[in-house]
Design brief:
With 225 residues, the protein is of the alpha+beta class. The protein is built from 7 helices and 12 strands. The longest helix is centred in the first third of the chain and has 15 residues.
Length: 225
């Protein structure tokens, strides 16, 4: 199993944090072997990823300076990620935290994506997601918060401008960590990398629920097609 076991109490705490803040940290979710396996796969997939440098008009013209690979390509190229996405142990963990059964996303483009920040100034600007939940797995990360690459988020903030009002919270993560985000109703972004030689590589797994209202914006296609 690529994931560390979590106690019922730990998952209950994570669920409360998710309902309160829209964000639940899952430190050291990946086992050392699981981290190494996924990191090796990410390095292989990065060879066919695409560089993106633009502003996203539909998200208040926020910047995108990053290298990405969309789920439609990962679907074709990585049996490992396909298995991971529907791993019953992982789905059970997500269900415990969100308090309902997660449902896999129909659109292969957004089902799982690889996001890589690897140059000074690289950033994933302000946005919300089309699907209710994002499970973000850290395969590479800056050693400390001073190097950038922090998650910034504002709970229950649909207005992206709220990220600039001084109410945003921030979180640093290390390789092997993960977090769950209520990503459709939590305005969020990733701060710029500040140091050369630093990489922030994450695999983002999107999930929906039976009760969720489908939403589709042009942002994913602009970033991952």
């Amino acid at each position: 199993m690529a994931f560390t076991q979590r106690s019922t109490d730990d998952l209950a705490v994570a669920g409360l944090r998710l309902r309160t803040d829209g964000y639940a940290p899952l430190p050291r979710l990946l086992t050392p072997d699981g981290l190494q396996t996924l990191r090796t796969e990410a390095h292989r997939l990065a060879e066919i990823a695409r560089r993106r440098d633009f502003t996203m008009v539909c998200t208040d013209s926020s910047p995108r300076h990053m290298t990405t690979l969309g789920g439609h390509v990962i679907e074709r190229e990585s049996a490992l990620v396909r298995r991971l996405y529907e791993d019953p142990h992982l789905l059970a963990l997500v269900a415990e935290v969100i308090g309902e059964t997660p449902v896999t996303v129909a659109d292969p483009l957004e089902r799982y994506v690889l996001n890589i920040l690897h140059r000074v100034g690289d950033t994933h600007g302000a946005h919300t997601d089309d699907h209710p939940y994002a499970l973000v797995l850290f395969l590479e990360a800056p050693d400390g918060p001073g190097a950038g690459g922090l998650l910034e988020y504002v709970p229950r903030a649909g207005a992206l401008a709220d990220l600039n009002t001084g109410t945003a919270l921030s979180a640093h993560h290390r390789a092997g960590d993960a977090y769950l985000l209520r990503s459709d109703t939590t305005a969020h972004r990733v701060t710029s990398l500040e140091h050369a030689g630093v990489r922030r590589t994450v695999l983002n797994l999107a999930y929906t629920t039976r009760s969720a209202t489908p939403r589709s914006t042009p942002s994913a296609r602009a970033l991952y097609m």
